[in-house]
């Protein structure tokens, strides 16, 4: 499948982020726990050079817990402080304050040596669209304050949300775009819903999902749809049959079936599934 997708405003947003990053001590980078690498933009490593770094494995409720742990180890081995969170339910958020203090230990110590006591850590949330930045800021800050100016290229003054005496958050998240010269990355992002559906060929995407399920979660098709066959198109037809997706003439409506299958994956109805694995644990 060939996904063509050219984001606008990228340079402008990146420039704005560069300015914002000068003001902060800590970058809180949200990734989607189902695709922790594909949902990153590697530019953040350059943009954030010299800053303390945290990775939040967001939507961890939708990802396979075994791999959540493997990804936590993976990022920790690269020097990130990592927390698994579900921004929607708030689970994992309580750990963050402690981890922020740990991540910013050097800055706090530096301040202390200069006689600056109790200066709050200033942090900024960054991530690709749809990864959960607004949801996270709203749940973490406990109020609906992340929507304002949450668009690339919108002029804004910097507003800080004071979370407690030791942490302030920039109210506007930094939006980065995913990179996908690699088509597999594009497919994974399409599967989690981070690429505008209107530009996608849904039946091809459903076939990709079926391929992935067959390889990594083979029981799901059997248990949920009673499907035993191996052929991907046949499987899609079986999904159409199981979910009564019929066109007027009695033909199976494969587009409708594709949408159902993809939505079921995105909403976690097929179960908790991770789409990519750290190299260490891949087989
Ligand atoms: P963004 O600012 O990074 O673009 O993302 P946003 O917060 O708008 O979140 C995108 C979608 O992801 C939202 O769903 C949101 O509810 C969902 N979401 C965010 N964090 C989590 C999480 O940890 N777990 C789960 N399961 N979902 C999460 P939506 O369908 O667009 O909106 P809604 O129907 O939930 O209101």
Automatic annotation (TrEMBL):
PROSITE patterns assigned to the protein according to its UniProt record, in alphabetical order: G_CP
Protein localization: Cytoplasm
Signal peptide feature range: none
Database matches in InterPro entries: G_CP_dom, GTP-bd, GTP-bd_ortho_bundle_sf, GTP-bd_ribosome_bgen, GTPase_MTG1, P-loop_NTPase
Alphabetical keyword list: Cytoplasm, GTP-binding, Nucleotide-binding
NCBIfam families linked: GTPase_YlqF
Entry-linked PANTHER family: MITOCHONDRIAL RIBOSOME-ASSOCIATED GTPASE 1
Family indicated by similarity: Belongs to the TRAFAC class YlqF/YawG GTPase family. MTG1 subfamily.
Protein name as catalogued: Ribosome biogenesis GTPase A
Organism from which the protein derives: Lacrimispora xylanolytica
